[in-house]
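Appendix B. Chain record.
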Amino acid sequence: MKPPRLTLLQFIVHLAGWLPLAWLVFDFATDNLTANPIQAIEQRTGFTAVTFLVLSLACIQLRMLPEEAIAALTLNAAAAMRLDEELGGLTAGKRASFIITKEVPSLAYLPYAFGTDHIDTVIIDGKPFRAGAALQ
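Structure tokens predicted for this chain:
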């Protein structure tokens, strides 16, 4: 059985996924590497972009289902840091930090639409950080 061929969109998303690493290598080669390179990448691209990058790479490279990748980024990440009592899910008693997306065809669409802003509203600790149409 031959492996499936990548479409042009999948190839572009794959290349975009390597962009933070390319920035790190470039910064290292030009002696511009900071003490905290991950924080520098977040400042350039934004935390949400890094999160969607990890989501895309998990689905494309690790062949995880979108539901599995989202669980890994939320519930499992909080449990790994022993913060699952207060973070990682929408449950009474936990801090309410979540995003509301613009209308998308399905949950499976998000990992493959990297590079497009699908975020409508951001709620952090129960307070709107970025209020979009969902709160109006």
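Further analysis of this model is presented in Appendix C.
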